[in-house]
Amino acid sequence: MKLEFMKRIFLIYNKMKCDCGKTEWISLPKTPFYTKKDTKSGCICKLTKCPNYKICKVRNPSCLLIGKGGVCLECNLVFNQRFVKDTNITKCLVCKKDKHLYQLPICEHKLCRKCIQNIFYCDYGNPKDYPEYIEFPYKPIGKYGEKGYYNPEDDYEANPYDEKWINDEQIQIFEEWKNVYNEHVDSVYRPANGKKCPFCRKKI
Ligand SMILES: [Zn+2]
Ligand SMILES: [Zn+2]
Ligand SMILES: [Zn+2]
Ligand SMILES: [Zn+2]
Fold first, then answer.
1. Which residues surround ligand 3, an ion (CB under 5 A)?
2. Which of 52, 88, 134, 200 is least enclosed by beta carbons within 10 angstroms?
Protein backbone atom coordinates (compact mmCIF):
# COMPACT_ATOMS: atom_id res chain seq x y z
CA MET A 1 0.00 0.00 0.00
CA LYS A 2 2.72 2.41 0.97
CA LEU A 3 4.70 1.56 -2.14
CA GLU A 4 1.65 2.19 -4.29
CA PHE A 5 1.21 5.54 -2.63
CA MET A 6 4.86 6.44 -3.18
CA LYS A 7 4.56 5.44 -6.78
CA ARG A 8 1.52 7.63 -7.27
CA ILE A 9 3.36 10.57 -5.76
CA PHE A 10 6.29 9.87 -8.04
CA LEU A 11 4.00 9.75 -11.06
CA ILE A 12 2.49 13.09 -10.12
CA TYR A 13 5.86 14.76 -9.73
CA ASN A 14 7.53 12.95 -12.56
CA LYS A 15 5.43 14.59 -15.26
CA MET A 16 3.00 17.45 -15.21
CA LYS A 17 1.08 19.40 -17.80
CA CYS A 18 2.35 22.89 -18.40
CA ASP A 19 -0.15 25.63 -17.49
CA CYS A 20 -0.61 26.46 -21.19
CA GLY A 21 -1.44 22.82 -21.95
CA LYS A 22 0.93 22.62 -24.92
CA THR A 23 3.56 20.39 -23.38
CA GLU A 24 4.59 18.64 -20.18
CA TRP A 25 7.33 19.21 -17.66
CA ILE A 26 9.39 16.11 -17.03
CA SER A 27 11.64 15.70 -14.00
CA LEU A 28 15.28 14.97 -14.80
CA PRO A 29 15.97 11.70 -12.96
CA LYS A 30 18.09 11.92 -9.76
CA THR A 31 17.83 15.73 -9.65
CA PRO A 32 15.34 18.41 -8.55
CA PHE A 33 15.35 19.81 -12.13
CA TYR A 34 12.62 19.82 -14.76
CA THR A 35 12.73 20.04 -18.52
CA LYS A 36 10.15 20.49 -21.26
CA LYS A 37 9.09 17.25 -22.86
CA ASP A 38 8.56 18.84 -26.26
CA THR A 39 10.79 21.81 -27.06
CA LYS A 40 8.93 22.52 -30.33
CA SER A 41 5.42 22.64 -28.86
CA GLY A 42 5.18 26.43 -28.97
CA CYS A 43 4.98 26.64 -25.16
CA ILE A 44 6.84 29.71 -23.94
CA CYS A 45 6.29 29.09 -20.22
CA LYS A 46 9.27 29.21 -17.93
CA LEU A 47 10.15 27.42 -14.74
CA THR A 48 9.82 29.47 -11.57
CA LYS A 49 12.78 30.30 -9.37
CA CYS A 50 12.60 28.94 -5.84
CA PRO A 51 12.49 31.83 -3.30
CA ASN A 52 15.86 30.44 -2.10
CA TYR A 53 17.20 30.32 -5.65
CA LYS A 54 20.48 32.06 -4.74
CA ILE A 55 21.22 29.11 -2.46
CA CYS A 56 19.55 26.08 -4.05
CA LYS A 57 19.78 27.08 -7.77
CA VAL A 58 16.53 25.26 -8.46
CA ARG A 59 13.66 26.27 -10.76
CA ASN A 60 10.50 24.16 -10.65
CA PRO A 61 7.09 24.28 -12.32
CA SER A 62 5.20 26.86 -10.24
CA CYS A 63 2.63 24.31 -9.02
CA LEU A 64 5.43 22.48 -7.20
CA LEU A 65 6.48 25.43 -5.06
CA ILE A 66 3.94 24.47 -2.47
CA GLY A 67 5.78 23.48 0.71
CA LYS A 68 6.07 25.68 3.76
CA GLY A 69 7.15 29.01 2.32
CA GLY A 70 6.59 27.82 -1.23
CA VAL A 71 10.10 26.44 -1.73
CA CYS A 72 11.42 23.99 -4.33
CA LEU A 73 11.70 20.20 -4.11
CA GLU A 74 15.32 20.41 -2.98
CA CYS A 75 14.67 23.04 -0.28
CA ASN A 76 11.73 20.91 0.82
CA LEU A 77 14.21 18.15 1.67
CA VAL A 78 16.58 20.49 3.49
CA PHE A 79 14.94 23.16 5.70
CA ASN A 80 11.60 23.54 3.95
CA GLN A 81 11.71 27.27 4.64
CA ARG A 82 12.65 30.55 3.03
CA PHE A 83 15.99 31.89 4.13
CA VAL A 84 16.20 35.37 5.59
CA LYS A 85 19.22 37.36 4.47
CA ASP A 86 20.95 39.96 6.64
CA THR A 87 20.99 43.44 5.14
CA ASN A 88 24.41 44.26 6.58
CA ILE A 89 27.71 42.56 5.80
CA THR A 90 29.38 40.40 8.46
CA LYS A 91 32.24 37.93 8.56
CA CYS A 92 31.11 34.36 7.90
CA LEU A 93 32.76 32.36 10.66
CA VAL A 94 33.27 29.31 8.45
CA CYS A 95 34.95 30.77 5.35
CA LYS A 96 36.11 33.99 7.12
CA LYS A 97 34.84 36.16 4.25
CA ASP A 98 32.76 39.30 4.66
CA LYS A 99 29.33 38.49 3.25
CA HIS A 100 25.60 38.94 3.62
CA LEU A 101 24.77 36.12 6.01
CA TYR A 102 21.62 34.00 6.11
CA GLN A 103 19.89 32.89 9.27
CA LEU A 104 19.84 29.11 9.67
CA PRO A 105 16.24 28.02 10.39
CA ILE A 106 17.37 25.43 12.98
CA CYS A 107 19.37 27.57 15.44
CA GLU A 108 20.59 31.09 16.11
CA HIS A 109 23.64 30.83 13.83
CA LYS A 110 24.25 32.48 10.49
CA LEU A 111 26.28 31.49 7.44
CA CYS A 112 27.02 32.86 3.98
CA ARG A 113 25.34 31.51 0.85
CA LYS A 114 28.35 29.44 -0.27
CA CYS A 115 28.80 27.80 3.13
CA ILE A 116 25.09 26.92 3.36
CA GLN A 117 25.33 25.36 -0.10
CA ASN A 118 28.42 23.33 0.79
CA ILE A 119 27.14 22.09 4.11
CA PHE A 120 23.44 21.51 3.55
CA TYR A 121 22.81 21.23 -0.19
CA CYS A 122 23.74 18.67 -2.81
CA ASP A 123 25.09 20.14 -6.03
CA TYR A 124 23.57 18.85 -9.27
CA GLY A 125 25.46 21.18 -11.61
CA ASN A 126 23.75 23.38 -14.15
CA PRO A 127 20.49 22.03 -15.64
CA LYS A 128 21.48 23.58 -18.99
CA ASP A 129 24.43 21.19 -19.26
CA TYR A 130 22.29 18.06 -19.05
CA PRO A 131 21.91 15.89 -22.16
CA GLU A 132 18.56 16.47 -23.85
CA TYR A 133 15.86 14.32 -22.32
CA ILE A 134 14.71 11.17 -24.11
CA GLU A 135 11.54 9.49 -22.95
CA PHE A 136 11.02 5.77 -22.63
CA PRO A 137 9.84 4.86 -26.15
CA TYR A 138 6.62 3.03 -25.22
CA LYS A 139 3.59 4.58 -23.55
CA PRO A 140 1.41 3.01 -20.86
CA ILE A 141 -1.82 1.36 -21.95
CA GLY A 142 -5.01 2.10 -20.00
CA LYS A 143 -5.48 4.29 -16.94
CA TYR A 144 -3.21 4.07 -13.90
CA GLY A 145 -4.92 2.20 -11.04
CA GLU A 146 -7.55 0.68 -13.32
CA LYS A 147 -7.92 -2.87 -14.57
CA GLY A 148 -5.95 -3.65 -17.70
CA TYR A 149 -3.34 -0.95 -17.06
CA TYR A 150 0.02 -1.89 -18.50
CA ASN A 151 3.15 0.20 -18.25
CA PRO A 152 5.88 -1.05 -20.62
CA GLU A 153 8.52 0.93 -18.70
CA ASP A 154 7.76 -0.94 -15.44
CA ASP A 155 7.78 -4.21 -17.35
CA TYR A 156 11.13 -3.32 -18.90
CA GLU A 157 12.66 -2.34 -15.58
CA ALA A 158 11.50 -5.59 -14.00
CA ASN A 159 12.60 -7.82 -16.91
CA PRO A 160 15.20 -5.97 -18.98
CA TYR A 161 16.55 -9.18 -20.49
CA ASP A 162 13.20 -10.41 -21.74
CA GLU A 163 13.34 -11.46 -25.40
CA LYS A 164 10.94 -8.76 -26.49
CA TRP A 165 13.35 -6.02 -25.42
CA ILE A 166 16.68 -7.50 -26.40
CA ASN A 167 16.68 -6.63 -30.12
CA ASP A 168 14.50 -3.56 -29.86
CA GLU A 169 16.22 -0.62 -31.53
CA GLN A 170 14.20 2.04 -29.67
CA ILE A 171 15.21 0.46 -26.38
CA GLN A 172 18.86 0.50 -27.43
CA ILE A 173 18.67 4.23 -28.17
CA PHE A 174 16.98 4.79 -24.83
CA GLU A 175 19.65 2.75 -23.01
CA GLU A 176 22.44 4.72 -24.69
CA TRP A 177 20.81 7.96 -23.61
CA LYS A 178 20.47 6.62 -20.06
CA ASN A 179 24.19 5.82 -19.93
CA VAL A 180 25.18 9.27 -21.17
CA TYR A 181 22.72 10.85 -18.75
CA ASN A 182 23.93 8.85 -15.74
CA GLU A 183 27.54 9.58 -16.55
CA HIS A 184 26.72 13.27 -16.65
CA VAL A 185 24.93 13.19 -13.29
CA ASP A 186 27.81 11.28 -11.71
CA SER A 187 30.35 13.76 -13.07
CA VAL A 188 28.62 16.88 -11.73
CA TYR A 189 26.99 15.61 -8.53
CA ARG A 190 28.41 16.60 -5.16
CA PRO A 191 26.59 15.48 -2.01
CA ALA A 192 25.91 17.83 0.88
CA ASN A 193 28.78 17.88 3.36
CA GLY A 194 26.99 17.64 6.61
CA LYS A 195 23.44 18.63 7.48
CA LYS A 196 24.50 19.95 10.88
CA CYS A 197 25.13 23.49 12.01
CA PRO A 198 28.96 23.76 12.15
CA PHE A 199 28.80 25.69 15.43
CA CYS A 200 26.16 24.06 17.63
CA ARG A 201 25.96 20.72 15.70
CA LYS A 202 22.18 20.94 15.61
CA LYS A 203 20.82 18.71 12.82
CA ILE A 204 18.25 19.65 10.21
ZN1 LIG B 1 3.51 26.17 -21.34
ZN1 LIG C 1 15.01 25.87 -3.37
ZN1 LIG D 1 30.97 31.31 4.48
ZN1 LIG E 1 23.84 26.51 15.22
1. 92, 94-95, 112, 115
2. 88
Rounded distance from Cα 6 to ligand 2 centre (Å): 22
Q: Which ligand has its closest atom nearest to the C-alpha of 124?
A: 2
User: pTM of the predicted model, to two decimals?
Assistant: 0.82
* Ligand 4 mean position, distance from CA 119 (Å): 12
Spell out the per-residue pLDDT of the chain, length 204, in tens. 345 544 544 545 688 888 889 999 999 989 999 999 888 899 999 999 999 999 999 999 988 887 667 899 899 889 889 999 999 999 999 999 999 999 999 999 999 999 999 999 999 999 999 999 888 999 999 988 899 999 999 999 999 999 999 999 999 999 999 999 999 999 999 999 988 999 999 998
Nearest alpha-carbon partner for 197 in 103, 122, 123: 103
